[in-house]
Protein: (spotted green pufferfish) hypothetical protein
Amino acid sequence: DTFEVLLKQAENHTNVFLRRSYRSVADEAAGPVGELFTAVGLFLMGSELSVEESVQRFFDALFPPVYGRLVRPALGDLSPSFAECVRSSRRDLRPFGATPGILAEQIVQSGVAGKLFLQALHLGLEVINTTDHLQMSRECRRAILKMQYCPFCQVQTNTSGLISSTPIRSTSTSEGKALLFPFFPQGLTQSKPCMGYCLNVMRGCLASMAEIDTHWREFVHSLEGLSARMHGPQDLEQVLLGAHTLLRDAIGHAQRNAARLSAQVQKLCGSLSGRSAQAVSPQQGSSRESIPLKTLVRGSGDSLAIKRRDFLNSLRPCRTHYGGLADHLCMSELASGDGLSCWNGIDAVKRYLKRAKRDGSIKPCIIISVEK
Structure:
């Protein structure tokens, strides 16, 4: 969707430029402009079509109206046969200078970078979705259940000495002997797991997640490096929205070389015939109806570069997500705070004496969508 919106904006921007700067050729150029950006869209979506050939075909189609209305403005409409001769001579005459090759190269370079970035985002999403449904072993499920819920367990003892799990109740016999009593010391039901106990359990159960950590860090680092290179000629947004500047240079080059081009075209195609002498006023439109185009207005927040920057800024705290997931869960949700009594798996204590398996830290991980 992001590429589609960008391509529509770039096509609209190019047509606006032609209407404002070269109105006499704008209508005839609208079709080739649309075909060019359609071809670029197919390339970005994975098609193996040649961007170089698509750009060359665009300038082939642009040459006849530019020649008849800007290079030799007195000619106006060209006869179909003469227009075809002009079109087919464009690659030999090079009326637009080096611009076609420059535009094609920039689209390819920036398009490859854009596609790689998009593919990387899809890969990252696949990793997140895959690890979002972690299947734990039976031992881990029991350990986590014990860690989280055993402080809330109570037991009931009947006259035969049997024990069963039930919530505590204030009930007594007629002789005043209590039938129910807490299985753990008073206040244990308010205790959370000790930090070290929680870390040992969660780090052990999430060891498979920690194995992803190195690859995930490399992925984030590579994504940052790719984004850093996406500027200037390698920034797809800049290239497509700035295509009209190269188009202006190309048409300007043809106008500056009008005398040479006129002589070369006449030598190749002969004298103009048919409707050759019919000049057309710039105010005359084509028979194709079109919606009036408006100037493209983009807020600074709409820029893909800014969205990319915001996304990466939100991704950086997640660089250690898989390696520090157990630590984050214990520190933010599961474990007891410092100085508070805590559950060590057996009793309520003030301090957990076993050493945690390894140190680690994690910051909250909240990723902003790049397609926002």
